[in-house]
Amino acid sequence: MVIYTGYESALISHLTVNRASTQPPETFEDLLHADGWEWGLDSWLWTGMPLEYFTRHKDPVVKEIYRHLQIIDPLKGLKKILGGGFSLMTVKSMVTIQGSSYFGDDHGNTPFYISKKNVPIVTFFGWGFR
């Protein structure tokens, strides 16, 4: 029996520090228009479909994001976010787990903002049982 668990566009998130005084980027376009802003992709995602998404995409906005994309260890990326001016594209659940574990308070609150605009890079994961 094979069980597939489908994930829609909620897998990849742009992360920023939640600062009340500034509006964080929500989209790739926002990242490109944010002066001095940098962004990166979680290093373990830099294979397969995410790699193809960025290298083969026809949209000029995605091409520009790819041109300046930093490949970064996820924990280092979260630390870099705390310095400001940086967004990390990664799996939401990673931020929930590592963000709470390393940066959360006693109630599980973290300083990270997860954008509401998601990028559908990975469509599903599958598990097989026999």
Kindly describe this structure.
- It is a single chain.
- The chain is an alpha/beta fold and 130 residues long.
- It has helices spanning 28-33, 48-56, 60-67, 74-82, 92-103; strands spanning 2-6, 12-17, 38-42, 70-72, 86-91, 112-114, 124-128.
- The strands form two sheets. The protein has a five-stranded mixed beta sheet. It has a two-stranded antiparallel ribbon with strand order 1-7.
- It is globular.
- Residues 1-13 have low confidence and may be disordered.
CATH level-3 fold name: D-Maltodextrin-Binding Protein, domain 2
Q: How is the largest sheet built, in terms of strand order?
A: 4-3-5-2-6
**Ends apart, CA distance between termini:** 6 Å
Question: Taking all residues together, what is the mean pLDDT?
Answer: 78
Number of domains: 1
Taking pLDDT < 50 over at least 5 consecutive residues as the criterion, the unreliable ranges are 1-13
Largest sheet: 5 strands, mixed
What is the H/E order?
EEHEHHEHEHEE
| β-sheet strand percentage | 25-35%
Instruction: Please report the number of helical segments.
Output: 5
Overall structural class, as computed from helix and strand content, comes to alpha/beta
Helix content: 25-40%
